[in-house]
Amino acid sequence: MLLIPHYVEHPFYSNPALHLLYISDENRVVPFQNAIEQVVSEGCCVAEIGAGCGILSRAAARAGAKKVYAIEKEPEILRFAERVIISAGMQDSVSLIFGSSFSISLPEKVDVLIAEIIGGIGNDEGISSVIEDARGRFLKSGGAIIPKKIDVFICPVCAEEAYSQISSVYEKDLIVAPYEARRPFKAYYEIIGMPPSELLSKPERLDAIDLYGHTEIFFRRKFRFSVSRNARFTGFAAWFVTELTGDVILDTSPWAPPTCWGQSYFAIKHTVPVVRGDVIELIFSAMHDKQAKRPYYVWEGTVNRKAGNKKPFYESNFQGEIEALEPEKRAIG
């Protein structure tokens, strides 16, 4: 099992070594390549947002696209992609564009829009707002989007190995990184290799992201989980299942082949022993921080034990000033 802290603003995305890890993950890359082969036809135009080193843009060119616009906002990664595109002899068909998709324009509208910027719980990299903007400005009427939709699931877990690492590995209860320091329970994590046996209940749908429509990034939702076995409740795991095309699915659940997304782990600082039949009530909120462009999260609730006592919990990865949600965004789904 591998445990990786997840941060909203992550400087490691500009590290080419991280992108080499991504493209070596066949369980991540191959489904996207299969979807591209199904959707991209000879002579069409394609735009990829968050192109990284260009592996999917190259797949679109190989599938017959006459022009691919590869948009990337990290300058070091764009330079790396340029070398890769030139070495592949694709510089005529793949045009690299530096910048955020929100601030650039394309010389023409495209037939296919690709964005492999799915966060561990779907929208934590802002894919729905990115696609909604690009869909209106870049995509032809009737054009295709890869992925089509993303379903996110959440479940209470007994992840004692991960919890032990969080609570004991970091000296003085502090994670120190090149760009910030924070308490280990003021973050959430990616677990690579979580076994299904660590789940404590039936998963519930946390979010449903429709890339052809509008999905709120900020929300507050309630869940009620019935514990299926005696264990120690250490937090929640979340993952996504995305439909890339009609019959190409990418699944990051604990039952699926592992990917470098893993499962997102939202730990609680004070674990709770539970028995079969106990009920865990969760309110999960995706909130807006004025200093950040992506959601921050709050996971809070109560463990209702059959013995009659209740154990509350409250955790978040907020670091800045919380901006109050508008009333319609506080609706409980």
From TrEMBL:
GO BP: any one term: methylation
Keyword Secreted: no
PROSITE patterns: SAM_MT_PRMT (PS51678)
Position of the signal peptide: none
Gene Ontology MF term list: histone methyltransferase activity; protein-arginine N-methyltransferase activity
Protein arginine N-methyltransferase domain mapped to chain residues: 193-294
Keywords: Methyltransferase, S-adenosyl-L-methionine, Transferase
InterPro entries, alphabetized: Arg_MeTrfase (IPR025799), PRMT_dom (IPR055135), SAM-dependent_MTases_sf (IPR029063)
Protein name: Protein arginine N-methyltransferase domain-containing protein
